[in-house]
Amino acid sequence: MLHNLIFALVILAVPSTRGKHGKISIFSARTEKIEQVEPVVKTNAEWRKMLTLEQYRSTRLKETEIPFSNKCELPPKGEKGVYQCVGCGTDLFRVETKFESGTGWPSFWKPVSDLNIKTKPDNSLGIHRTEINCARCNAHLGHLFDDGPPPTGKRYCLNALALKLVRLPQKVAHFETATFGAGCFWGTEATFRQLKGVIKTTVGFMGGTLKNPTYEEVSTRKTGHAEVVQLEYDPNQASYQQLLNIFWSMHDPTTPDRQGPDVGTQYRSVIFYYTPEQEKIAQLSKQKLDKSRKFKNPIVTKIVPAQEFYPAEEYHQQYYEKRGIKPACQLPVK
After folding, report:
1. Which one of 54, 68, 110, 210 is separated from 276 by 20 to 30 angstroms, measured CA to CA?
2. What does pLDDT average to over the chain?
3. Residues 181, 189: Cα–Cα separation, whole Å
């Protein structure tokens, strides 16, 4: 009776703080992009209602399940899957990173992304361990050890009760997104449209504070947006590095908030990345170009996470093409 009373009091004790937190970055295994999402915050009573008793005790009360008592489901042969947090659906570990550790608990050597989990010291039970939690809903997942296989040498030892398997769709035609700011978006778009593998282009605005800005509002320099072109491209025909090569060649990345006669923060040189891989490639490309001394002055291009994209008015789309104007910047002939 005493145990049940304490259990009930715990459920009712924690007030809800939903809506009081800012968005956080989470990597999606389905879209292969970093997405901005709201943290999931619930009262213990709410968690108890949506989870089974065993799941609740594992993820919210941090109880360790008995080894070999539960197993992680596997997708059908030939299909891919990801294990999500049972509480909030955050992608945690891919099926292909799972290995047999012999411990009786599901073990993985790498998370989907370091963005999706949190670790903290755990000195309970009189020993030092590293606890693993879901970055979005703070569910207790298990513990991290340094006795895993290559290439990480890590063993993410989890409770099966904290995970649920979701099968990932087979990729048929996989297009990716890239967004660049290189001055006036008319010419930027026209140049990228010449590249084979670029499926779709849309000019618009990104990086500001005003929702759904107009061209006139952005031109006041008060909204903080940059004029950008968003590309949808086929990575099998055009690599992200190729896009960067064109980006660097079409404008002067050393002039802050200016391209030729166009002056203003909306004309700044900027790369908005959607994945950790895009960020890495862009940073390395910028460093290599800076070291080459191709430009007399240092490169001032910003490399920042993609934000909400707002398409510009229709008359700005494919501006040069609709008017029969050849872009000033032409792709080099191979």
Report:
1. 210
2. 88
3. 10
- What is the fold, at CATH topology level, of the domain defined by 176-323? Peptide Methionine Sulfoxide Reductase; Chain A (3.30.1060)
Please check the confidence at residue 268 and state whether its pLDDT lies above 60.
yes
Three-state DSSP at 210 gives coil
Strand partners, 178: 231
16-168 belongs to which CATH class?
A: mainly beta
* 77, 89 contact by CB (below 8 A): no
- pLDDT digit string, tens, across residues 174-186: 789 999 999 999 9
What distance in Å separates the CA atoms of residue 152 and residue 294, rounded to the nearest whole number?
38
Q: How many helices (H) and strands (E) does the chain have?
A: 8, 19
Give the H or E element holding residue 144. Answer: strand 140-145
The residue behind tokens 């229709």 is 314
Could you tell me the two tokens for 123?
């000195």
DSSP state of 256: T
Active-site residues, by number, are 157, 184
Residues 6+ apart with CB under 8 A from 306: 34, 177, 179, 206, 272, 273, 274
Phi-psi region of 201 (alpha: psi -120 to 50; beta: other; left: phi over 0): beta
Rg (CA), the chain: 25
Residue 273, beta-bridge partner list: 305
Amino acid symbol at 5: L
According to DSSP, the residues that pair with 140 across neighbouring strands are: 133
More confident residue, 51 or 21: 51
**β-pair type (269-273, 302-305):** parallel
Domain boundaries, the chain: 16-168, 176-323
Write the DSSP assignment of 117-134 as a string of letters.
EEEEEE-GGGS-EEEEEE
Select from 178, 209, 163, 205 the least CA-distant residue to 277: 178
